[in-house]
Amino acid sequence: MNITFDDKQPIFQQVANIIEDDILNGTFRVDEQILSVAQFSQLFQINPATVVKGIALLVNEGILYKKRGLGMYVAMDAKQKIQMKRRDRFYNELLSNLLNEADKLGLTTEEIMDMIKQLRKE
After folding, report:
1. Angstrom distance (rounded) from CA 107 to CA 114
2. What is the residue-wise DSSP string for 57-114?
3. Which residue among 88, 102, 110, 120 has the highest number of C-beta atoms inside a 10 angstrom radius?
4. How far apart are CA 85 and CA 92, in angstroms?
5. Per-residue pLDDT tens for 45-100?
6. CA 56, CA 53: separation in Å to the nearest integer?
7. pLDDT tens sequence across 4-44
8. pTM, whole model, 2 decimals?
9. Are 59 and 66 in contact (CB under 8 A)?
10. Which keywords, in A-to-Z order, does the entry hold (predicted)?
């Protein structure tokens, strides 16, 4: 797996997002163990402390849980929590920015909807 990290957000946050993506796409399922810190560190070629910080973020959000001595596992309602978090971010950040830019361009709601429908067809 070849991952390129960007400078727009901390690497630990990007690690958390990658794990979330893997939960959403079914790579990691409920009550299934995720890769170890050492495996993630080697896979992404990053410091293990960075991986720990990303995993800790997901533990704090209730997306992962720890089985002592065994590793980290996907929580029962992890997928729903991720979807809700990302829906909120989509609404509050992405759509808000989109509408602000649309207003600057003088686009109507209908024009925006037509553009979205066109992209959905592609």
Report:
1. 11
2. HHHHTTSEEEETTTEEEE-TTHHHHHHHHHHHHIIIIIIHHHHHHHHHHT--HHHHHH
3. 102
4. 11
5. 999 999 999 999 999 999 999 999 999 999 999 999 999 999 999 999 999 999 99
6. 5
7. 788 889 999 999 999 999 999 999 999 999 999 999 999 99
8. 0.84
9. yes
10. DNA-binding, Transcription, Transcription regulation
